Amino acid sequence: MFQERPLYTAAHITNFILEQARHDEIFINNIKLQKLLYVSFGWCYVLGRKKKLFNDPIQAWRFGPVIPNIYHQYKKFQKGDLRQAPAALYFDFKEMTTKRAPTYEMDEQTKSVLLAIWDYYKMKDTDSLIDLTHQKGTPWASAYDRENRKEISKRRIKKYYQKKYLD
After folding, report:
1. Mode of pairing for the β-strands spanning 89-92 and 97-100
2. Which of 88, 100, 121, 159 is most buried, by the most CB atoms less than 10 A from its CB?
3. Mean pLDDT of the region 105-126
4. Residue 122 carries which DSSP code?
5. How many angstroms separate the CA atoms of 12 and 1, rounded?
6. Is the Cα dihedral 47, 52, 154, 24 positive or negative?
7. What is the reported pLDDT for 4?
8. How many helices and strands, by DSSP H and E, does the chain display?
9. Degrees, nearest 5: CA angle 24-128-6
10. What's the CA gap between 30 and 76, in Å, rounded?
11. Rounded distance, CA 109 to CA 45, Å?
């Protein structure tokens, strides 16, 4: 089954990506961040974790896959650079409070896979990443509905990236 509880939230992965963008001095806006979160979710399952990276919903929006809670944290930046943006937050249900998602708590295997994903995709511009996620047969394409923001099945994302890995 694909029901296991992830160790991380999308906020943890967001903070990792933003740290890398700052370190490598790579421009990143909210749309690019959303696509990197999506491909990280897909590739992390195939490249080592063998379980979901995070549970946050991934929806099919006009410009591709979006993690709504992360999008809304950064929408005020519009198309601007997020390298100076504050860290992403998540709600801790155990403590019933909002917290900064620290990346220092990540295991080395996850960091290693995320770094490889970052290194591969970091130089792609926003339009290239939109094109990548909009290809025929992608999980986004199967879920997208102009009238509604439907959730993209994580099972479908997993199967798509497994097939991509084997091709």
Report:
1. antiparallel
2. 88
3. 94
4. T
5. 24
6. negative
7. 57
8. 7, 4
9. 65
10. 10
11. 12
For residue 3, name the pLDDT band (cuts at 50, 70, 90).
very low
- Using an 8 Å Cβ cutoff, are 17 and 36 in contact? yes
Helix axes 108-121, 30-44, angle to 10 degrees: 130
What 3-state DSSP class applies to 58?
Answer: coil
pLDDT one-digit tens code per residue, 37-72: 999 999 998 887 678 899 999 999 999 999 999 999
Burial class (CB in 10 A: 0-12, 13-18, 19+), 156: middle
Residues 6+ away with beta carbon under 8 Å from 27: 21, 81, 83
What is the Cβ-side half-sphere exposure of residue 6, based on CA atoms within 13 angstroms?
A: 22
pLDDT category, 85, cuts 50, 70, 90? very high
- Note whether 87 and 101 are within 8 A (CB): yes
SS3 66: strand
Task: Record the tokens describing residue 66, joined without a space.
Answer: 């979006």
Residue pair 112/48 in contact by the 8 Å Cβ criterion? yes
The number of C-alpha atoms within 13 Å of 96 and in the hemisphere containing its C-beta is: 0
